[in-house]
User: Which sequence fits this backbone?
């Protein structure tokens, strides 16, 4: 049940939970301790720099939850009927940068919608609900869509391995750029690789005398990669035109309606993004139908590219413009691919958002005090 | 005794450190028995040498329990988050050279750069169902280095010793470890990536920013700097 409110923060949490409750959410209680192995598998080694680790004599390494996504999906996979709406409130724990004054533990109140058929409607439902909970604060909302970038990369006129490599680094902008420059012929092929490819083309057995095969990676895997490098060297560069279009998409920053017009223009030259652009259009219509002022929404082509959460579609955040020192008051997005990774191949459409109640409370208080 | 100076308590690192100070007119000598880890500086009343394990010196510097300390720059970077806020590197001492490098099996002829390592890590994960393992004891340095270079799909496995043997023993696919000549790597059929040097370490005199720098300690420090010929 919704907790009794005797502290202002508890009251704020209860207020938000009540809204989520009215939206049909089931309030769930989720574990704080998660198996480290599972998070490492999902997020990679970087999670160690972000999450607190502890140890259980029997269960081994555990992590204090850095967010609620994994436990929510686990809980749903175990028992949920679809579509399902969940709400939750509790602490998350994140190691902060040295010298940072941001708290290592703080509350989140969240809403997740799993298994809904109509993605545009589901995205709009979650966004509108979070927007309603924060309406009194006059926050700036920004959004993006990782599906656009994915579609643009998938549509490049280049080999499947090159597309796969770019897609794998969507969330690492610097590495993505380095790969794109390499594939575009902007940066030269490293000399050692050029020499390797030349030697392989002469038909020499490069593994002869190269030392014993130690470790799990086999000689066969080395040979396969040499073959892949030779094939890649034959690939024509990704054209300047295609790279320019990608840059235009990544640099797009406008109010949502203007951004949609730009996206439609881009789709004339980048046909691959058309379905994703149509999805953006349907989402904006669904948002408008829920009473969201889409004219005021900021749309950014690169939004969500540096978050840890691995959102892979719609992404959004709410910001206090007068307080650029604060992290976003709320964030959210779609994470279908994450459910596939967690569910052992079974993907569920999933979208959700979290509010930091300490921030929404702090931002509301001066306004309350200012009133007579 | 106002200025506490932490020195490595054992082996060549200790000998070289004592020599380094002696060459600059600061004669350090051990007092008591070999096992007491006590020392004094001849003719400098206010300087208190403290002998301890080189791997504990970063912690003592960061906590401000010593004013100065001699240890490897790799240990300071690995053990103290955002180390420059806590300590200042005064002077590299020109010995104890060791490079922290990423090394892979020699027969990986297709791998020469971090870019290659990243590509191989992706293929390895798809093929073997788990991330490519890199054995190291320098978790922070290696993780930050690999993140900065956009290497993904690896995981670090802890190795506190004999790290070069882990690949041959099947507990890792690659390593990140300290090497001075590369001989041990070669003996274990490993090679260093051409852009895989994480850090070039050497023995360094550090100053703690966290210690109590009262007037006496500051005066003593300035006098010591003058003897050593370094800028305070």
Assistant:
């Amino acid at each position: 049940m919704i907790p009794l409110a005797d502290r202002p923060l508890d009251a704020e949490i209860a207020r938000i939970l009540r809204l989520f409750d009215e939206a049909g959410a089931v309030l769930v209680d989720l574990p704080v301790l998660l198996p480290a192995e599972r998070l490492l598998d999902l997020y990679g080694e970087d999670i160690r720099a972000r999450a607190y680790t502890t140890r259980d004599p029997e269960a081994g390494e555990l992590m204090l939850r850095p967010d609620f996504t994994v436990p929510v999906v686990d809980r749903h996979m175990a028992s949920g009927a679809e579509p399902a709406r969940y709400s939750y409130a509790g602490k998350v724990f994140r190691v902060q940068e040295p010298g940072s004054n941001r708290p290592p533990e703080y509350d989140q109140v969240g809403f997740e919608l799993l298994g809904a058929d109509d993605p545009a409607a589901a995205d709009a439902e979650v966004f509108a609900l979070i927007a309603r909970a924060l309406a009194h604060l006059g926050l700036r909302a920004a959004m993006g869509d990782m599906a656009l970038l994915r579609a643009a990369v998938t549509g490049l006129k280049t080999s499947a391995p090159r597309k796969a490599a770019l897609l794998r680094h969507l969330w690492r902008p610097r590495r993505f750029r380095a790969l794109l420059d390499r594939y575009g012929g902007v940066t030269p092929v490293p000399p050692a690789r050029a020499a390797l490819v030349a030697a392989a083309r002469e038909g020499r057995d490069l593994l002869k005398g190269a030392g014993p095969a130690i470790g799990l990676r086999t000689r066969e895997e080395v040979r396969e990669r040499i073959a892949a490098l030779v094939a890649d060297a034959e690939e024509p560069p990704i054209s300047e035109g295609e790279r320019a279009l990608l840059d235009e998409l990544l640099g797009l920053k406008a109010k949502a309606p203007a951004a949609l017009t730009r996206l439609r223009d881009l789709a004339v030259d980048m046909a691959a993004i058309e379905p994703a652009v149509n999805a953006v259009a349907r989402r904006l219509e669904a948002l408008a139908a829920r009473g969201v002022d889409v004219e005021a929404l900021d749309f950014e082509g690169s939004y969500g590219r540096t978050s840890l959460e691995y959102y892979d579609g719609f992404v959004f955040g709410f910001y206090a413009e007068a307080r650029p020192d604060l992290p976003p008051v709320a964030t959210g997005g779609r994470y279908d691919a994450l459910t596939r990774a967690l569910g052992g191949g079974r993907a569920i459409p999933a979208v959700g958002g979290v509010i930091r109640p300490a921030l929404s409370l702090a931002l509301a208080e001066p306004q309350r005090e200012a009133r007579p | 005794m106002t200025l506490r100076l932490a020195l490595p308590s054992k082996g060549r690192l200790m000998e070289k450190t004592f020599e380094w100070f002696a060459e600059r007119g600061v004669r350090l000598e051990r007092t008591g028995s070999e096992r007491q880890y006590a020392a004094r500086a001849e003719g400098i009343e206010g300087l208190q040498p403290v002998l301890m394990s080189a791997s504990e010196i970063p912690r003592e510097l960061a906590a401000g329990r010593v004013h100065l300390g001699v240890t490897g720059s790799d240990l300071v970077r690995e053990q103290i988050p955002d180390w420059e806020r806590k300590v200042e590197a005064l002077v590299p001492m020109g010995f104890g050279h060791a490079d922290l490098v990423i090394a892979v099996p020699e027969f990986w002829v297709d791998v020469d750069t971090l870019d290659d390592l990243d590509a191989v890590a992706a293929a390895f994960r798809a093929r073997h169902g788990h991330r490519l393992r890199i054995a190291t004891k320098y978790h922070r340095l290696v993780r930050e280095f690999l993140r900065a270079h956009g290497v993904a799909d690896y995981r670090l496995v802890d190795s506190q010793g004999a790290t070069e043997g882990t690949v041959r023993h099947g507990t890792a696919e690659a390593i990140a470890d300290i090497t001075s000549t590369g001989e041990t790597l070669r003996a274990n059929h490993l090679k260093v990536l051409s852009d895989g040097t994480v850090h070039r370490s050497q023995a360094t005199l550090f100053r703690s920013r966290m210690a109590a720098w009262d007037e006496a300690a500051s005066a003593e420090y300035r006098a010591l700097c003058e003897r050593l010929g370094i800028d305070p």
In short: Chain A has a mean pLDDT of 91. DSSP finds 15 helices and twelve strands in chain A. Residues 159-239 of chain A form one domain.
